Amino acid sequence: MEGLVSHPSSPLPAYVPLAEVVRSGFREGVHYGAVIGLTADGAPGYARGPVEAPMFPRSAAKPFQALAALRAGAPVSGPELAIAAGSHSGQDIHADIVRKVLADAGLSPEDLRCPVDWPMGRRFRDALLRSGGEPDRLLMNCSGKHAAMLAACAAQGWSTADYLDPAHPLQAMVRETIEELCGEPVAHTAVDGCGAPQMAVSLQGLARGIRAMALAPEGTPEAAVIAAMRAHPEYVAGEGRVDTRIMRDLPGTVSKIGAEGVIVLADAEGRTVAVKVSDGDAETRARAMVGLTALRELGADVSPVADLLSVDLLGGGEPVGAIRPL
């Protein structure tokens, strides 16, 4: 099938141990990966593993994509901009905002090219099932990004049916934005889970790019994206989600998770951390603790979220071990 290869040409990265899983005094497993920490002045201050190897930021690249849409004229701000840079949970407040962005651009949910999906989180999915609801494009966690992309296309008079084509003017702007902020060329372009182009950069480049946005002067599009995320963390993720919790409890910090074990964090002083957990961290239990530990090593106060620095392992309903950073 097109887009599939049996043997990738890229070499296996030399990932290192980042967190251990200890049950009843026995090391049951290890999460491997890489982590980079940039100091307030932008210098590498913490690095473990292949931080210069290309990787896919996945949804951690959404702030860049939202910035490209804003630069292209998408008329979004506040919660609309936050959800464009976010991976929302599919709550009613999220679907309502996405629907509004589309309507304001003269478009409808049928114009979205992301897949139909259920809300994130069992509670919201169960509520939808009880109400007789079904999977919907509006509920897909990337629909806010897609709506902003469509709004930018409408503002520019660009075609909307093919807005996910890597050769589309909007996606060309996304690529230019990523390369500009990350300070390196895109190493590879793939198709993300939502259907949008996904562009590989190094973990260090990802940190460099988010730091540039976090420190951008007030009044710039870069600063607008970060300000929207900080002011409206419930639209970047949702209730019970790590990004929302970190941004609420560490004011001034921006947090964005990406699939396959990625998270990027930047505080108001410019300290920035990017993490890649090589096994994908499917239960989202390792990347936040690794990232917050690195942020603490750089001098940031992460005590308000100290409970995220380890995860209890249960046996018979009682704690019998923990997942903790190495």
UniProtKB/TrEMBL annotation:
Pfam families tied to this protein: Asparaginase_II
UniProt cross-references to InterPro entries, sorted A to Z: Asparaginase_II
PANTHER family: L-ASPARAGINASE, PUTATIVE (AFU_ORTHOLOGUE AFUA_3G11890)-RELATED (PTHR42110:SF1)
Protein name (database record): Asparaginase
Naturally occurring in which organism (per UniProt): Nocardiopsis endophytica
